[in-house]
Amino acid sequence: MFSLISSIKTLAVRSGVNSTLRTLHVTSSLEAARKGTREKARKKKVKVEVKKVGFIPHNQRDKNKLKILRADRHVDDSWKATPLDNVYVGKYYKWRVYSVQEAIQCHRETHHPSMFNVPNAPLVAEIEINTQAEKANRFVDNFQRMAMIPHKFEHGEERKILVFTKENDLITEARTAGASLVGGIELIKDITNGELLLSDYQYVIAHPNILPELVSLRGLMKRKFPNPKSGTLGGDLTDMIKKFANGISYSAVKDEHQQNFGLIKATIGHLSMDSNHLESNLKSLLEDINSVRPKREGRFITRVLLKSFPSGEQLKIDPFVYIPEEVVKKSSSKAAPVAEEKEVVENVN
């Protein structure tokens, strides 16, 4: 089309025509010629809408990607053979189960001055638990507790205890037991005015006689607010103070990829302590853990190992010497009469 116009202008110049040439109307032709180009330009101008996605839990992300096969952390070697002598390849046979006294003696030998030379090393109990709740798709949440033990040891933690009570006799009792600070309504006023910081104290204990006045601090205390379930609210202040000052603080943490597996690591004493004292502390710890087990059949504590840094030895013990292995639900009493009725009907027929 452009070549046709230029040829007409050239012909007019040669023929001597001076009049202004009228250009041809070519809008429709140009529109048709540039239709494809304009459509491409319009497509480029279209904005790409980004879809906003809400929070996705870590265990539900990247479902389309390749899933990594992970081994079950609940170790079951019951199907393996029992070793017949003391020289064997460990991975092909069951783990040896030691008594607590034997395990302590083994760690003492490796920590002797002639070897690791750490005779006062801490003895750590590594306790594996099955966190499945009553329902198959529910699991016990992570929890933190304090286990009261009969024989105290240097745990290396700073534990300041704040005690609330009214009566003068109870205030004296709490101070004698080892509380860092004891008081009543005057302490509540100091905390409300900002003169006393709750963050300076790791544990808060209260007697029921001051509970009505203490409710005003519920918002400030939050999880530190005393309650009977955590053992921070009760009438025996001496036992509560000794429990939080000398007890074993432990926490149960679920595995990130396996929801029914939980692990507890707690120090029960030092190798220099008496073996019977260490065993008593371990028993108290196992009983405290077993007290929060879910109401279902089967094991809650699955395996217990005794370790002592810097040795890498993991000595397995039997925890069911100290606690019941399983809790079996009792069958309903209505089932027996029904069975008797069936027997009667069969005899009649």
Characterization of this structure:
It is a single chain. With 349 residues, the protein is of the alpha/beta class. Among the domains are: 120-153 and 248-321, Ribulose 1,5 Bisphosphate Carboxylase/Oxygenase (2-Layer Sandwich), CATH 3.30.190; 161-245, Rossmann fold, CATH 3.40.50.790. The protein has helices at 2-15, 27-33, 35-45, 100-110, 168-177, 185-193, 211-214, 218-221, 237-246, 275-290, 335-348; strands at 97-98, 122-130, 143-147, 161-164, 181-183, 203-206, 248-254, 261-270, 301-307, 315-317. The strands form two sheets. A seven-stranded mixed sheet has the order 1-10-9-2-8-7-3. A three-stranded parallel sheet has the order 5-4-6, sandwiched between helices. It is flat, with a radius of gyration of 39 Å.
List the defining traits of the structure above.
Rossmann fold; seven-stranded mixed sheet; three-stranded parallel sheet; 11 helices; disordered C terminus
The level-1 CATH class of the domain at 120-153 and 248-321: Alpha Beta
Strand content: 15-25%
Per CATH, what is the topology of the domain at 120-153 and 248-321? Answer: Ribulose 1,5 Bisphosphate Carboxylase/Oxygenase
CATH architecture level-2 label of the domain at 120-153 and 248-321? 2-Layer Sandwich
In sequence order, what are the helices and strands, one letter per element? HHHEHEEEHEHEHHHEEHEEH
